[in-house]
UniProtKB/TrEMBL annotation:
PROSITE patterns: PROKAR_LIPOPROTEIN
Superkingdom field: Bacteria
Name the record gives this protein: DUF3558 domain-containing protein
């Protein structure tokens, strides 16, 4: 009897040890991330809606609304279901150096817990950040750039919701900024250049 019990115990131990490190939870597979396409329609005039939806997984209606007249600054939020702002865009001709310095100090000199990427030089001075959040921040992915447009120092910031699994949030933010700068130049009749 002891031999039978010992044999069963040995079998259970072998079975359990053979399963270590393996998960029985099946992770959903994701399709390869597609490139960000620059195509109309645009949310808040600067971010391609189709690409935004693909990156964020947002479904349902979205409506972008600018706050007032855009003379030397602008703020636009794209609103979704439950009256939640799923996309935020700000731009200004004012205080660009100070705004960028404040963001660099906060993210590049910080604790290092959030992934940060500097923008490519052709987009000007700036960075992309994917903030770690436990759901308390609707738009934890943030990019900001300082560049010149028509000789004026201009900054744009974009913040978006969490991206779908399998996407590179920082890479997507950089591409959204590339499109936003180009669109800004078209709308304001200026040519974006690095600051």
């Amino acid at each position: 009897m002891r031999r039978l019990l010992a044999g069963q115990l040995l079998f259970v131990v072998m079975l359990a040890s053979g399963c270590q490190g393996k998960s029985i939870v099946h992770e959903p597979t994701t399709a390869p991330a597609r490139l960000i396409l620059d195509a109309a329609p645009y949310l808040c005039d600067l971010v391609p809606e189709h690409s935004f939806r693909e990156v964020s997984g947002v479904a349902g209606s979205l409506a972008g609304r600018w706050d007032g007249h855009q003379t030397d600054y602008g703020l636009c939020l794209a609103w979704g279901a439950q009256n939640s702002a799923l996309l935020g865009i700000s731009w200004s001709y004012n205080d660009g150096e100070q705004v960028i310095e404040r963001q660099e100090k906060a993210w590049l000199g910080g604790s290092g817990r959030s992934p940060v990427r500097r923008l490519p030089p052709e987009l000007g001075r700036g960075l992309a950040v994917s903030r770690f959040t436990l759901g308390g921040d609707q738009r934890p992915n943030y990019v900001i750039a300082l560049f010149k447009c028509g000789g004026r120092a201009t900054w744009i910031s974009i913040d978006i919701p969490p991206v779908v699994r399998g996407r590179d949030a920082l890479g997507d933010l950089v591409e959204f900024m590339r499109i936003a700068e180009r669109r800004f130049g078209e709308l304001h009749r200026c040519t974006p250049r690095p600051s």
